[in-house]
Amino acid sequence: MRMHTDRFRPILCVGFVLIACVIAVLLFAPNALGQAPETPKPRATPKPKPKQPLKITGTVEIGAQILETQGAYTTKFEEVRDVPKGLFVQNLKLYLESVDSPYFIRFRGTELRERDQRITLDAGRFGKYRAQFVWDQTPHHFGTGQSFLVQTAPGFYSVSATLRAQLQTLTLPDSTRTPATGPLSTLVRQELLTAPLTDVRLRRDRAIFRQSYQVSDNVELHAQFSWLRNRGTRPMSAGTFVRRNFAGPPPAPIAPDLGGIWEGIGQEFLEPIDQRTYDIKIGSQFHGKRWSAGVDYDLSLFRNLISTLTFENPFRTTNEEGCLPAIPPQTCGATNRFRTVRWQSDLAPNNESQTITFWARVNLTTRTQVRGLISLSQWTQNDAFLPYTLNTAIVPIHWDANTTVTNPTDVNQLPAKSANAKVRSINQQYALVNRRNTFQFQAQYRSQSVDNRTPLIIFPGYAAFGDSTWRAARTDFFGLPIENLDWDFRRQNAEAGFEWEVLPQLTWKVDYEWEAWNRKNRDVNRNNEHSIRNRLDFEYNLSGDGKRSSAAPTSRKAEEGESILTTLRLKLDYTYSNRRALAYNTQALTFCAAESTVLPPPVGGCPPAFFNNNGVPGAPAGAPAGSTQAAWVITPQTIFKLGVPTEFNLLRRYDQNDRTRNDASFTLELLRGPNTSFSASYRYLGDEHDKNFYGRLFNRSAFLDVEFTHAFESGAYLYANYSRETNRYTYRDLAHLLPTANPLIQGVFSQFPIANTWERTSRSSLDSFNFGINAAPQEGKLKDWQFDLAYAYSFTRDRISTLNPYAVRADSIIHAGANPYPDTVVRRQDLNLVVSRRMGEKYEVGVRYWYEPYTQDDFSYNVLQPYVHGTSTSDTPKYLFQNARYGSYHANVATVFLRYSF
Amino acid sequence: MNIVKSLIGRLPASSRLVKLLIIAAFTCILIISAGQAVFPPALSQSSQKFVGREDVGKDCKACHSPIVDGFATNSHGKSAKFMDGERSASCETCHANSEKHVKTGKKEDIVSPAKMSPKDINSSCLQCHSQDKHTFGWAGGEHDRKDMSCLSCHSQHHSKSEEKLLASFTTEETCLRCHTDVRKAMHQRSTHLFRTEQRNMKVGCTSCHNPHGGEGKKMLVAETVNNPCYACHADKRGPFLWEHAPVRENCMSCHTPHGSNNAKLMSSRAHMSCQQCHIHMLPRHSTTAGKPLDIWSLNRGCVNCHAQIHGSNHPGGRTLTR
To answer: Which of B15, B86, B223 sits opposite A429 (nearest CB)?
Structure first.
């Protein structure tokens, strides 16, 4: 049964009101304001000074600003912030406290009345209790969308019936291409010109109330209630899937892609968001002389007030079923997709999480500590299922003769009413630490065990491809049941290490780590990874006796007369990791070697398409013996294993397969006194996978970072930082043949011709430069002026290259071969200059100039339009996008502000 | 257990329980706290500790007036004034041998934490600050093992922040002083370290990390990688009917949390992220090298159709499409 979320609202309202009342009692209690208490006489002082009463101090900062943005898509500038025009209040602080009172009330507000405002109210009695209230807003702006779809009720988008009727009339039958300049496409584009525009934005509002109370010196209670509201819209989409190329007798010629057949292969819409997350934490902690312990309970409830989304298909007024198998097989499934009038999706379901955590630590000696933590969690979700489809025209038996589903729009024909999903997890952590002056040892064990207790539900099939067809186990999934699998896993991690001060200047640290994963229903059931890490820390006092400086690095200023030490620090860090899979589970596909000359019908199920002579006696050989004409195929004899991914048997997934990792870094720091520092570091992180397989082959990154900081005697502070990050990864993949290239294969079939292998490499780099100088009034210097300049530059380039190591087979789907991708470039600059002058004891005025140019050149977004439409030769299928996106812009902001302190 | 079960399994019926839980827990603590405020200190148990000492730093003030004045208003100074025993931090708590220094006035006669080794500084601070869960993983944790001292981030007498006696103005500035490689994330195409117009961070370092030694690896505030993510993204928590296993195991299978050159904090471009794990067996849906204008590479790539990539609860959502 679906959760009645509105029932919660009055409850929480009552809760809020009650809590607010209690806070009010607390805050306005006479003692809290320091009015009533009869202060006991001080202990030691014979004659106390008069008490300083509670007084109000504060700061108000108001300003006005001009904002100018240029560019076609300027939303990125205010993606997650609000930059107002005109008058605004940027800071407000009100403190009620006194040196002689343990009570305090502090109010802080930033960017008040803006979309990203934050308010904090803190009150309490020092050392006894503290209550804190936080209100925080975060906007998220996606841009301006344009669509036929108009939200007429929460979660329901409708399209003008007249337009739908017009478009349906213009729809061409079955496999006839819908031309880019045809009447339907023209009308869609024309109507979109006047379609309503929508500002696509979300706002995340969070209220937190925290309370802690010190029952005694040894016992503390704490509680926290947080409320998170996420409201607005964000882009989301639904697709009908693309199928490439038009079929013909094998080997088929390369024909225009089938994307052109449909009126629209997908629809982007705005996901309506109205979500709440309630989180309650209650805990207590205790301690003695040598131990401390605690318990915490956390209840988190996620509530989605709009749990379904339904939209009307702009192209349909009547439901229709997809192309049936009885019609020539090569066209079926490829045409008549997305012929439902209404399409429905389930949005994030309500869920609950409970966690209870126990922790304790004991200092066995002054140098040895033992600690442990165990946390038990349970997550549940039981939202009611929606029907398979809203398309009344689908008759499942047309697609699967054995199905028992007669009416897929009826929820009573589902095998269950809800998932009754439940996951339990246990997290544990235990550690032993021993620390001596020149030697330290620690050992730690962590475990995360996730047990999915959701009942297994077998579905007889489901509506798919724009809700026009019916997919079933027998016809679409090699006979494997359509069931939810329980993805249980357990992650264990044990570490042990020691640290030895070999010389006064040199410390050696060695760590060993073992990590194991046990997984259920995934490619690998057991992974073991062993890592060894070596670190050398060297510190040399260049201006002293060469020994390690005993003082810790701090931000303190050099005292007058203090000799300035120059310290050199070098750090070397190298970790080697080796991960191995106990066994990699794959489906048992058949290898059809190209050198075979068996005539059809082939033995072992190998189809003729993979043989030298194409299976035709006397025909010319397709490829020389041993060539890449070979393939892995599914044959009628293939026996599928349940719980093993239905994937190409040579694919190795990077999160589970064998991996060697090298992680090395070098850091140099030069510190001249506490005021000047220079550091440079370089790190290489490389993951190498087995290159004999498909999937990710390697992922290598390098990081270079150089930074200089200096604090001047005048109080000014300067910093400059440059960093460069490069990343390169390559993966190997493979494209299928045309659907009809392999007619002997059962029901749904699959073939993985080695000739169609392709490899893609991404080389990305990020150069970043930051510079800033800040001159602030400090300890009597620079009394009146404050100056702050910050500049940041960031440049990213991603180069993508793809290659085919072998000649791609002619009977392949379109785009099986490598095609070049243009570079993606993103450049961002941020210049911020603030100058302020104190005008007496209480006032300060200032000006600010902020300049932010942003350039984005990304092929994934550059060509987006509300109706992306391909031509007869184009690769772009039709898709109805909202076109809410980010692009290049220039922003200039000029501000004047006044700060008043009292 | 029945109460818990009903709370989880039958929410409409359990709404009263939730109401009771919320209200009871908070009102208990608040009323107890408020009681402490309302009752005159003379009658309350803790009033014995409300000594209001006037002599905090009295002997030091003659030479160190600005320091002592500042100390009186911060949390340590207040603890010296209003608390007793272990919880009271006076000048002598950190600056041992002060008696001799008062007599001689020599710098070398007093202990100064700023000139002590990290181990000694930390030992001094942890005398009082080792009891909270907040410092659960400090000993042997990443920062401890890097010989960081409390004074690397905090400054007792020269604090620039209003909270936590930080040596820098904000928590993030404090962290970025050492973690310079993360600074770039502030200006990346997509980032969690976004800043408001006033340069305030909404998702700061401590939203996910605990610098004093968190419960998880990488000093995370929670035991697992995903738990800090669910604090804001509870809609991704599930459990779902159709799960996407890598999502359940680790959000960072596909996302990079600080900042990314790609949209949505993706580790790689959307469709290229999917292609590294999916070649796909079904010919209906083949994976191709593709062209830039393919529907698979436009906009959100594969997620144009597989919109519920984090998990689906629809009976027809096996392929995470709805």
So the answer is: B223
